[in-house]
Amino acid sequence: MRLSFNSDSQRKHLPPVPADYHSHTPLCRHAEGTAQAYVDAALRAGVSEFGISDHAPQIPEPFDDWRMLERELPEYFAWIERARAHADGRLAIRAGLECDWLPGCEPWINQLSARHEWDYLIGSIHYLPDEVLGIWDFDNPKWLGRWAAQDVERLWTNYWNAYAAMATSGLFDILGHPDLVKKFGFFPTGDLERFYEPVIDAVAASGCVIELNTAGWHKPCAQCYPAPRFLQLACSAGIPLVLSSDAHAPDQVGRDFAQAISVARAAGYRETVLFDKHQRRAEKLPEN
Ligand SMILES: [Zn+2]
Ligand SMILES: [Zn+2]
Q: How confident is the model at residue 8 (pLDDT cuts 50, 70, 90)?
């Protein structure tokens, strides 16, 4: 369900909607819309803050065809400035990046971190090291055939090992779409808690925040990231939460947040986190 408002006076009578901290820009070559259109959509959705977190540059360049280049960073900063100018005090606009966790990426992430006054960095895993396949972008639809032919247990094991290492690195404020590995609906047999438990321990020890990413509802797996059981275990372990749409177009900002609030509350969450230059504060999760 999407929340929409006809006027500011109506908005005052409706519960606040948490911040949406995961959105993209056309610089990544697979998103659309203008900075102004994203801000207008965020205002319509009623989110408390709006964060921009496009796919970070990755060396060596060209690394792939779905991210900005390092030389495009100034254009990215200009996009964030245009969003802030258009919001004009009506909505806090936060500056972030969605960085890829790759073997040996630490010096590069540290360099990126120093390039701007970021409010937060998101760490995500879109590439997996694999003993058979090498490093591959497992969530790219071009690999659907490969997924069908591989040992899913091995791929899941590699994914969660990498996720725990990413958490432990301490490089990121937020960890993105925790169980993205399920995107195409390939699940190992048996109880998935054997994958969840060690990684939840690692994330809890790291102090990182995780996101409840609503984009998964629109993918073949048809589930939010992470699954409700993962979220329940994460809440019990004291891991903080943000909600995110992972919008690649303006009309996706704040998408399915009413449903996400229900899922988060059912898992035990009563608040989400706001970021300002890596500093956190809590925001009450509305009832719905
Ligand atoms: Zn993307
Ligand atoms: Zn992502």
A: very low
Tell me the ligand closest to 67's alpha carbon: 1
How is 92-131 classified by DSSP, letter by letter? EEEEEEEEEP-TT-HHHHHHHHTTS--SEEEEE---EEET
* pLDDT tens-digit map of 225-243: 999 999 999 999 999 999 9
Say how many Å lie between the CA of residue 99 and the centre of ligand 2.
9
Number of domains, the chain: 1
Residue 263 lies in a domain: yes
Evaluate the omega torsion of the peptide bond into residue 103 and state whether it is cis, within 30 degrees of 0: no
In a domain, 2, yes or no: no
Q: How far is the CA of 252 from the centre of ligand 1 (A)?
A: 13
Question: Global pTM?
Answer: 0.95
Q: Which domain holds residue 246?
A: 16-284
C-alpha 9 – ligand 1 centre gap (Å): 35
Which ligand has the shortest distance to the CA of 66? 1
CA 24 to ligand 1 centroid distance, Å = 7
44 pLDDT band, cuts 50/70/90, is: very high
